[in-house]
Amino acid sequence: EPEVTQTPSHQVTQMGQEVILRCVPISNHLYFYWYRQILGQKVEFLVSFYNNEISEKSEIFDDQFSVERPDGSNFTLKIRSTKLEDSAMYFCASSDRETQYFGPGTRLLVL
Amino acid sequence: GEDVEQSLFLSVREGDSSVINCTYTDSSSTYLYWYKQEPGAGLQLLTYIFSNMDMKQDQRLTVLLNKKDKHLSLRIADTQTGDSAIYFCAETIRGRRALTFGSGTRLQVQP
Fold first, then answer.
1. What is d(CA A23, CA B94) in angstroms, rounded to the nearest whole number?
2. End-to-end alpha-carbon separation of chain A, Å?
3. How far apart are CA B104 and CA B35, in angstroms?
């Protein structure tokens, strides 16, 4: 069964450093998403991406964040200058229509 | 804005039925979803219901939607220890693809 994959599973970084989180969506899906879950809090929507551009973003998705589909299979989330409060589990998802399928997540720890 | 609320914890005995409840505020919900999260894992889509439906059954899972009261429930028949997990309800609203999640209900199944 096709699934969304994410790398790395864990990432530790120093405050102020750039991180890139990677995702491989399900191959025939056209919509891609990033969500995050800060420990003990709700899963929060960050951004959606369709047809090589951002289709929707939340207030959390400020200028520190960017997304890219550098080739036909990968979808990345870049955090330019990480802050302590960026520590969270980051989930990638993809969908063809109304159902979003999630990857296993990348746990990001900013020290 | 939209808000989704769930009770935090439910404990049942193996073999009993579990009912997990969710309320939402936005009357323009289009789809409502149930996701399952096991420890250290991603979000697994269990089932979803279109907002003009009242009920959907899928094997041991029954989803009931009361649109007037903005109340969604997930019933798991014959609950097993493997059903122990956190269950999230989520919604999308008209014109948007972003999922808004509840805080999750931790289901504990006692042998």
1. 27
2. 37
3. 9
CB A88 within 8 A of CB A43: no
Interface contact B35-A102, CB threshold 8 A: yes
- Here the tokens at position A11 are 């990432």
| B96:A56 CB<8 A | yes
Q: Which chain B residues are within 8 Å of A104, Cβ to Cβ?
A: 41-42
- Nearest Cα residue to B31 out of B85, B76, B95: B95
**pLDDT single digits (tens) A75-111:** 999 999 999 999 999 999 999 888 999 999 999 999 9
- Identify the CA nearest to B107 among candidates B46, B26, B55: B46
pLDDT, mean over chain A: 95
CA dist list (Å): A54 to A30, A80, A110, B17, B19: 12, 17, 26, 42, 37
- The length of chain A in residues reads 111
Mean pLDDT of B57-79: 96
